[in-house]
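Project outcomes to date are best conveyed with an example. Our students and postdoctoral researchers have been running inverse folding experiments weekly, and each run begins with a structure described purely in C-alpha cells. The record below, which covers 330 residues, was selected by the lab manager from last quarter's runs and is presented without edits.
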C-alpha cells in the first residue's frame, strides 16, 4: 500500500515559537500557553465536542444560578482542572459513544479565517498529563478537520488508563495519575487501513490540537484533566497541587491582573501591554469586545451599560496576560 505524506495535506502556517509552559489547573489560569500561538491569540482555550449519537458533557455546578455559562469558564474554580461528567448515550446504535475535549495549539489562521493553523511541536518531545478519569481516555494529536477526516479520524494516540477519584471536585494532592509520553509513543489505531499513514513524530511537526477522547459503554463518567505540558516532567504527580515556582506564575501574567466591576463599569489593573477583552453571554456569544492598551497604574475601563442584566464571562487575552472571570450585571 502506498504511503502518503502528511505534508501533502497540511498547509504551512506562521506561528510564534516560544516555550510551552506546563498548564496546571491548580494555578487557575484558563489558557494553555503552548508557545506556538499566532497573532490571533486564539490558542489554548479549552472546548468540548460530542458524537452524533446523543452523548453530552455535563459541566460541574459552580454555585451560581444558573449553574454555569460555558463549561471551560467555571472548571478552574470548581475542580482546579478541566473537569466534567461525560454522559454517554448511543441511542439505538451499536457504536461506542464518546465525548471529546481539548485545546488548539496555534489557533485560527486569522481574524477572518477560522480554519485551524498548525505548528511544529517537535521541541516538546511529547506530553505529560496529570488526570483522573472513570474510564480510559485516548490522548490524540489533532491535525485539523481536513486531515482528521482524510484519515477517517484515526489520529495518532496513546491511552491514558482509567484513574478514578473519590471526588473530582475536591482535588487535594492525593488523587490523580501522571503519564509522560514521547511523540514516538503515539500510534494510529490498529483498525485503520487507510492509505495515509501518520506516526507521532510526523504529526507533531504539523500539530493543530491536543484532544482527549473518552469513549466507553453508555453511562456517566467523571474526568478531570489537572495538568498538561511538554515531556519535561513538570506536570504535578497528583491533582490539585499548585505550581511551586512563583516565576512561572509571573511569566503567565496572572498574579497582578484584576478585573473589578463597579455598577456597569468594568475596570482592569495590572495589564502591562495591549490586551483584548471579550464579554460573552450565557450562550458563549461575544456581545462586546474592546482593547486595553495599558492598565499598569490606573484602571482601564469598559462601559457595559448597553448589556442586559444577567451573568457574563469576561476573557482578557494578550501577550502577558490570559484570564477569565464571571460577572453578574444587575
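After processing, the design step wrote out the following sequence:
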Amino acid at each position: 500500500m502506498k504511503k502518503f505524506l502528511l505534508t501533502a495535506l497540511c498547509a504551512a502556517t506562521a506561528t510564534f515559537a516560544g516555550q510551552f509552559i506546563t498548564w496546571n489547573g491548580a494555578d487557575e489560569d484558563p489558557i494553555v500557553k503552548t508557545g506556538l500561538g499566532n497573532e490571533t491569540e486564539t490558542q489554548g482555550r479549552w472546548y468540548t465536542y460530542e458524537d452524533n449519537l446523543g452523548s453530552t458533557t455535563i459541566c460541574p455546578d459552580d454555585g451560581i444560578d444558573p449553574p454555569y455559562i460555558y463549561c471551560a469558564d467555571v472548571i478552574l474554580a470548581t475542580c482546579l482542572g478541566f473537569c466534567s461528567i461525560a454522559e454517554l448515550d448511543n441511542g439505538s446504535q451499536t457504536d461506542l459513544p464518546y465525548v471529546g475535549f481539548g485545546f488548539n495549539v496555534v489557533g485560527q489562521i486569522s481574524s477572518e479565517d477560522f480554519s485551524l493553523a498548525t505548528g511544529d511541536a517537535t521541541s516538546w518531545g511529547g506530553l505529560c498529563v496529570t488526570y483522573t478519569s472513570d474510564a480510559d481516555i485516548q490522548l490524540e494529536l489533532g491535525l485539523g478537520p481536513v486531515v482528521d477526516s482524510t484519515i477517517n479520524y484515526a489520529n495518532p494516540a496513546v491511552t491514558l488508563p482509567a484513574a478514578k477519584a473519590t471526588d473530582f471536585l475536591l482535588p487535594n494532592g492525593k488523587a490523580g495519575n501522571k503519564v509522560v509520553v514521547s511523540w514516538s509513543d503515539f500510534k494510529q489505531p490498529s483498525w485503520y487501513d487507510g492509505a495515509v499513514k501518520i506516526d507521532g513524530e510526523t504529526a507533531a511537526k504539523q500539530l493543530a490540537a491536543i484532544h482527549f477522547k473518552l469513549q466507553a459503554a453508555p453511562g456517566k463518567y467523571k474526568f478531570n484533566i489537572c495538568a498538561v505540558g511538554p515531556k519535561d516532567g513538570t506536570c504535578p504527580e497528583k491533582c490539585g497541587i499548585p505550581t511551586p515556582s512563583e516565576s512561572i506564575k509571573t511569566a503567565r501574567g496572572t498574579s497582578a491582573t484584576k478585573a473589578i466591576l463597579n455598577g456597569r463599569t468594568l475596570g482592569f489593573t495590572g495589564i502591562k501591554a495591549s490586551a483584548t477583552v471579550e464579554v460573552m453571554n450565557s450562550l458563549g456569544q461575544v456581545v462586546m469586545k474592546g482593547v486595553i492598551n495599558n492598565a499598569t497604574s490606573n484602571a482601564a475601563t469598559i462601559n457595559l451599560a448597553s448589556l442586559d442584566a444577567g451573568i457574563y464571562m469576561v476573557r482578557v487575552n494578550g501577550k502577558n496576560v490570559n484570564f477569565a472571570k464571571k460577572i453578574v450585571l444587575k
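The chain has a mean pLDDT of 82. Residues 222 and 239 are 14 Å apart (CA to CA). The training component of this project remains on track.
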